[in-house]
Amino acid sequence: GLKKKEVNVLCLGLDNSGKTTIINQLKPSNLRLYGPLSDDWKHVSQTQTQDIVPTIGFNIEKFKSSSLSFTVFDMSGQSRYRNLWEHYYKESHAIIFVIDSGDKLRMVVAKEELDTLLNHQDICSRRMPVLLFANKSDLREAMSSVKVSQLLCLENIKDKPWHICASNAVKGEGLQEGVDWLQGT
Ligand code: GTP
Ligand code: MG
């Protein structure tokens, strides 16, 4: 569980699922830190939900809640960047996995990526919490979080605490429930 005060969270999921929108909602509207592979993070600009563009590589965001300091690695979900994900598994303490609940066609791709992640040598043996957002719950075609969890076979995750929340990242709905769960693990 998250006993530490400083927590590294890896935010993963397919491109366009809403990762950056979620992270942007979670942090108080302050700095955005962009990360190359060095410690030389630089302050670039304030970003609002409507300015969000597809992530290139990844962004690093830092924010505090009442009890924890989070460093979030907001990874790009584009297939050409997904090979970056595994480099951050070892140093991460928790995973946020975001799914576009309206994207029926790519649910199988999301499942493949989740399965690959959970079976990775740096993840599979650890009791690391996995928070899933069934995002875009506002879309007319959105599947429920129960349906998403069935399609992803989440009941097969036996060795890690996991939790799925429906969310609407544009409005910020459902996000706090997820973060509260993560803080309680
Ligand atoms: P990559 O960085 O390419 O991996 O994508 P991402 O997962 O970071 O997605 P991003 O946050 O950039 O959001 C993609 C698009 O989905 C944007 O146009 C968002 O405004 C939109 N979006 C995000 N969350 C929601 C949501 O809950 N509902 C709806 N309707 N749109 C959303
Ligand atoms: Mg992004």
Characterise this structure.
By secondary structure, this protein is an alpha/beta fold. It has a single domain, classed as Rossmann fold (3-Layer(aba) Sandwich). It has four helices and eight strands, in the order E-H-E-E-E-E-E-H-E-H-E-H. The chain has helices at residues 19-26, 107-118, 145-151, 175-184; strands at 6-13, 33-34, 42-43, 58-64, 69-75, 94-100, 130-135, 162-166. The chain has an eight-stranded mixed sheet with strand order 3-2-4-5-1-6-7-8, sandwiched between helices. Strand 2 and strand 3 (42-43) form a beta hairpin. The longest helix is centred in the middle third of the chain and has 12 residues, at 107-118. Mean pLDDT is 88; it is low at 30-47. Guanosine-5'-triphosphate (GTP) binds at residues 13, 15-21, 52, 54-55, 76-78, 98, 135-136, 138-139, 168-170. Guanosine-5'-triphosphate binds next to helix 1.
How would you spell out the order of helices and strands? EHEEEEEHEHEH
**CATH class, please?**
Alpha Beta
Main sheet summary: 8 strands, mixed
**Coarse morphology:** globular
CATH architecture: 3-Layer(aba) Sandwich
Overall helicity: 10-25%
How far apart the termini lie comes to: 5 Å
Helical segment tally? Answer: 4
Ligand roster: guanosine-5'-triphosphate, magnesium ion
CATH superfamily: P-loop containing nucleotide triphosphate hydrolases
Oligomer: single chain
Q: Which structural class matches the secondary elements?
A: alpha/beta
Sheet-strand content, in percent, reads: 15-25%
If you average the pLDDT, what whole number results?
88
Which fold name fills CATH's third level, the topology? Rossmann fold
Q: Over the alpha carbons, how many angstroms does the gyration radius reach? A: 15 Å
